[in-house]
Design brief:
348 residues; alpha+beta; Kinesin; ten-stranded mixed sheet; three-stranded antiparallel sheet; 32% helix; motor protein; cytoskeleton; nucleotide-binding; P-loop_NTPase; Kinesin-like protein
Length: 348
């Protein structure tokens, strides 16, 4: 019942080969102790977060330093937990969550390159084994593409699913497919199968740009135990927690990406939903007494994240940025966005 602040961490990716060849200069520098400094003409600012991971930080160090392990344990305890990555297109969001894009079921990524999702699955299954057979695990995988919700685990993922609201469940997706799993291999394959169905395209800034927001949710149900010492030998109540991974499509400027036609329509829908998310975060960051109506209903993304952002959930936000001088405007936008999110509180 106590208030908890959103935990916000920052990841700065390395300069790409193209940026290095072009002569881009790094303008973002980690100062240690969760602070980062932006140094460029007309821009000199310092930002503070729960943790900052620079270009040399390994995937394992990001997992341990972000608090992801604790989030898995809280989900097992029955809390609603969410982690989402956001930032400019090509800033490393999908790599941070999933690892390399070229991995397949037959050619998995090297263990050291696995992202937050696979490492969380491994941690979850380790905890499940230590709990014995009283944990039941299942997963759903959705994408929001051009403001339509699609099921990435369904054999017919092109069908749009309706988004509903109820007093007990809040916003939820009707008729989504939920798949039970018991092994690391099974959930890893579900992740890869769904990711291959996700909409992606190439443009000037990113050869594998995500054109949709993706939400993978793990449902963790603890079965009621017949005897519970805390209740004088009576039955222990069952608990259900969730662990939701949100890979947001990257913000992008059509002028920079060279998008046209369908790509331009997708970019406009992506930017509009991210703008609504940013507006909700700005309002939630205000003191409780000064908050006005929070417009969760203005996009399907904010409806599905309503509980995580301003309700009873526990949330980790991973802001991903490029250190390149050419990306300075988008980088500053992401840093300000993340700084506002640091002031948002929930009541888990």
């Amino acid at each position: 019942g106590r208030e908890a602040r959103l935990r916000v961490v920052l990841r700065v990716r390395p300069l790409t080969c193209m940026e290095t060849r072009r002569g881009d200069q790094p303008v973002v520098h980690s100062l240690g102790d969760g602070t980062v400094h932006v140094s460029a003409p007309k821009h000199d600012a310092t930002f503070g977060f729960s943790a900052v991971f620079d270009a040399s930080t390994s995937q394992e160090a990001v997992f341990e330093g972000s608090g992801m392990r604790q989030l898995v344990e809280l989900a097992i305890d029955g809390f609603s937990c969410t982690v989402f990555a956001f930032g400019q297109t090509g800033s490393g969001k999908t790599y941070t969550l999933m690892g390399p894009l070229n991995q397949t079921e037959t050619q998995p990524a090297a263990p050291g390159l696995l992202g937050l999702m696979q490492r969380s699955f491994s941690c979850l299954l380790e905890q499940s084994r230590s709990h014995g057979s009283d944990l039941a695990l299942s997963a759903s995988y959705l994408e929001i593409y051009n403001e339509q919700v699609r099921d990435l685990l369904s054999p017919e993922p092109s069908c749009a699913l309706p988004l509903r609201w109820s007093k007990t469940r809040g916003f939820y997706v009707e008729n989504q497919l939920c798949v039970d799993f018991e092994s690391l291999e099974a959930i890893a394959n579900l992740l890869l199968q769904g990711s291959q169905r996700r909409r992606t395209s190439a443009h000037a800034l990113n050869r594998h740009s995500s054109r949709s927001h993706a939400l993978l949710t793990i449902y963790i149900r603890s079965q009621a135990v017949s005897t519970c010492p805390e209740l004088g030998g009576g039955a222990c109540p069952s608990k259900q927690g969730t662990l939701c991974f949100v890979d947001l499509a990257g913000s992008e400027r059509v002028k920079e990406t060279g998008s046209s036609g369908e790509l331009s329509v997708e970019a406009n829908n992506i930017n509009r939903s991210l703008l609504t998310l940013g507006h909700c975060i700005s309002l939630l960051a205000k003191p409780q007494g000064k908050r006005t109506y929070i417009p969760y209903r203005d996009s399907k993304l904010t409806r599905l994240l309503a509980r995580s952002l301003g309700g009873s959930g526990i949330t980790l936000m991973v802001a991903c940025i490029s250190p390149s001088s050419r990306c300075l405007s988008e980088t500053l936008s992401t840093l300000h966005y993340a700084s506002r999110a640091c002031r948002v509180t929930t009541r888990p």
